[in-house]
Amino acid sequence: MNITLEPVTIDNFEDIIEMELPPDQAGFVATNAQSVAQAHYYPEFRPLAICLDGKPVGFMLYDVASHDIPGNYGIYRLMVLHAYQNRGIGRRAMEMLLGRLRDQSDVHRITICYKPENHVARAFYASLGFAETGVIEDGDMIAEILLPRH
């Protein structure tokens, strides 16, 4: 199983924006189309295709200066197509992105947000080292990984 994170490009963006989650999951995350549009208008946003053996099967969106604070990276979206869930693809994609972010010379904080009632996301992100801050922003719980400054 070869999982890679690839830029969203003219060659794969239609696959990305057409991805849907089942109704019981769709309310937990913005659509990929909305996220790709945001990335177009917010230059600090970085959209990524999660690919399995070269085929897009998911999507991630992160921010290189969350709340306009250098060194504060925010992960806003993670979605894996329902047919590919529970195979470790989302975990591997998150581990890869976290590795990239930890390698940034200015990184001191990585945040993630999720709906407080999404117990699966809460447990998943906690297993990756995120700790809830107790802050809820726009209905989303904020969790963080704090890193020593370089």
From TrEMBL:
SUPFAM superfamilies: Acyl-CoA N-acyltransferases (Nat) (SSF55729). It comes from the Bacteria. Gene3D superfamilies: 3.40.630.30. CDD domains: NAT_SF. Coiled coil: none annotated. Pfam families: Acetyltransf_1. Residues 3-150 form the N-acetyltransferase domain. Keywords: Transferase. InterPro entries: Acyl_CoA_acyltransferase, GNAT_dom, MshD_Acetyltransferase. PROSITE patterns: GNAT. GO terms for molecular function: acyltransferase activity, transferring groups other than amino-acyl groups. This is GNAT family N-acetyltransferase. It comes from Pseudoduganella buxea.
